[in-house]
Amino acid sequence: MKLNRFTVVMTAYSSSREEYSNERCMNLLIEQLCGENRRFQFDHAKGMYKGEAEPALAVQCNDFTDVGMLLQWARDYKQESILIVDARGKAFLLYCNNSYMEYLGKLYSHDLKEFGEPSIMPDSYTVMNGIMYYTV
């Protein structure tokens, strides 16, 4: 039996806010993830979405209840979407305003430490621990 686990990549940054406000929002999001009775484990990452690089978090979720909680927090921070990766490595973009889920494809990885940057950079990607994750 294979358990369904998800990874959600999200941020609290917004291009409409000042850097100080973005850092404050990101710290508040981390506090929410670590807060009382929270079971979330996460890693810090760098996300690139629509040409904008920003700090992100890769959050481990046990089920869709967890995903729903993160979706609500993303809405609270005025995010457009969150990235969901399922246990099979399939990636989806979940839009915060209407909960529409768009299939992006299989998630691939590229070890930046070993191979350097790829010759053609993807438009959107996440870098975590020296590995670039992207869809094609």
User: Which runs of at least 5 residues are low in confidence (pLDDT < 50)?
Assistant: none
Gap between N and C termini: 29 Å
* Beta-strand content estimate: 35-45%
The value of Rg in angstroms is 15 Å
Q: Give the neighbour order of strands across the main sheet.
A: 1-3-2-7-8-6-5-4
- Overall geometric form: globular
- Number-wise, the strands total 8
Number of helices: 3
Helix-and-strand structural type: alpha+beta
Main β-sheet description: 8 strands, antiparallel, barrel
Helix content: 10-25%
Order of helices and strands: EHEEHEEEHEE
**Kindly state the mean pLDDT as a whole number?**
90
List the topology elements.
Elements lengths: L5 E5 L8 H16 L6 E9 L2 E10 L2 H13 L4 E5 L4 E6 L5 E11 H4 L9 E4 L2 E5 L1
What would you say this structure looks like, in words?
The protein is α+β, with helices and mostly antiparallel strands and 136 residues long. The chain has helices at residues 19-34, 64-76, 112-115; strands at 6-10, 41-49, 52-61, 81-85, 90-95, 101-111, 125-128, 131-135. An eight-stranded antiparallel β-barrel has the order 1-3-2-7-8-6-5-4. The longest helix is centred in the N-terminal third of the chain and has 16 residues, at 19-34.
Features:
single chain, 136 residues, alpha+beta, eight-stranded antiparallel β-barrel, globular
Brief summary of the model shown:
The chain has 136 residues and is α+β, with helices and mostly antiparallel strands. The chain is 24% helix and 40% strand.
